[in-house]
Task: inverse folding
């Protein structure tokens, strides 16, 4: 069974631009969640999608958004990029919604550098 | 709010020795789940072990075991017969039914020395 796949793996953007990251969950998984990892803040929850609906959102500005498609694939978008958005963005999937207690499985992440 | 505390930023252990990583958490929930994830230099987060709070028996996975003390809200990870491949960041994580997200600790960097 293929794992969680994230694309692109590495990207460099300029301040003010926008970026879209993609995540394909494990086959059969319906929940996708996103995390931002930085050296100073650790892993911070961005949002979770289940059955195309956003179930929960972390404490991030409105520049961060996401969506989920009918095949459970998810995208997250960051608009008007700032230097502080440079981070590893991790996507995770689980069979059911996060609060069901299922283990979440992570992708390899997308490294975003904002210059 | 749920909080997870890992008080050991860095640790080292000799190959083949045993090491214990500490984790404490704070919650008012009674039904929850605890996890240890490993993040090697490749940055892939890998599940090491999972514990369900309602189970009194400590979880084990080969060389990895936990000491789950529910009353003390403590969830430590013991790695036996440490191997070079165990070198990684280890994150303790908490999930409750009432909160729709996993809360992670800040991580412990473990170095296994040959």
Result:
């Amino acid at each position: 069974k293929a794992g969680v796949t994230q694309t692109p793996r590495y990207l460099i953007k300029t301040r003010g631009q926008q970026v879209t990251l993609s995540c394909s969950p494990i086959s059969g998984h319906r929940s996708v969640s996103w995390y931002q990892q930085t050296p100073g803040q650790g892993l911070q929850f961005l949002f979770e999608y289940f059955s195309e609906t956003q179930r929960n959102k972390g404490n991030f500005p409105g520049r961060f958004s996401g969506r989920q498609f009918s095949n459970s694939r998810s995208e997250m978008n960051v608009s008007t990029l700032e230097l502080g958005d440079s981070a590893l963005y991790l996507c995770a999937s689980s069979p059911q919604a996060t609060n069901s207690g299922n283990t979440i499985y992570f992708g390899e992440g997308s490294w975003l550098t904002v210059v | 709010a749920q909080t997870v505390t890992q008080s050991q930023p860095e640790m080292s252990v000799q190959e083949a020795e045993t090491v214990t990583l500490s984790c404490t958490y704070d919650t008012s929930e009674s039904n929850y789940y605890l996890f240890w994830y490993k993040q090697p230099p490749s940055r892939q987060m890998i599940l090491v072990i999972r514990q369900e709070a309602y189970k009194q028996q400590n979880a084990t996975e080969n060389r990895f075991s936990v000491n789950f003390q529910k009353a003390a809200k403590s969830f430590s990870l013991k790695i036996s017969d440490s191997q070079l491949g165990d070198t990684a960041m280890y994150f303790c994580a908490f999930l409750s039914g009432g909160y729709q997200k996993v809360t992670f600790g800040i991580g412990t960097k473990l170095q296994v020395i040959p």
